[in-house]
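Example 209, ligand zinc ion.
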Amino acid sequence: MNEQLIDNLVDQVVAKINEERGFLVEASGRHVHLSQEHIDALFGKGYQLTIDKYLSQPGQYAAKERVTILGPKGALHNVVILGPARSASQVEISATDALPLGVKAPVRESGDIEGTPGIVLMNGSKTVTLEKGLIVAKRHVHVSAADAIKMNVAQGDIVKVRINSEQRSLIFDDVVIRVSDKFVTAMHIDYDEANACSFKKGTRGYIVK
Ligand SMILES: [Zn+2]
């Protein structure tokens, strides 16, 4: 075999391996993370959230409790709280959700909330005014430490991810890689992004170079 042929074969094998290395994509609806201080304010001192179901990331769960997000123009009711409690409260909505609320929410990585707008949370007659923490979550891939080596990616990398679907395949750019040995590898997009690519359960993403 000549060199050219071998190179082509190697390229094909690498492409095939990359294809198999795709990862599960999950669509996150609007949700709230609360500090214990804000759980106390909304549900009572020392209140513990009730686990409804566990999420793909170890230890993370959707709680049974719900809150209302109140903006200057309108409200979003029945918004799920994700546990466990965090050091700082954070509200994650889609850009579409921001319209009825009457607020502008910046695209930020989770936890990066300095300088973001505040919002009001309500549970019945109890309210909490967050000084900051309203964001549209930047799309990201949680990558386990072991998979990061296989996928040749590192914490903080910005990659492109291809989504194949009927009628609406697309490539997302500006996807953040987040690596931790506490993660299970999965991509998180919001509902605006999910609708844009005809997401359905089982949709997989593939890093493209
Ligand atoms: Zn995530």
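Summary: The mean pLDDT is 95.
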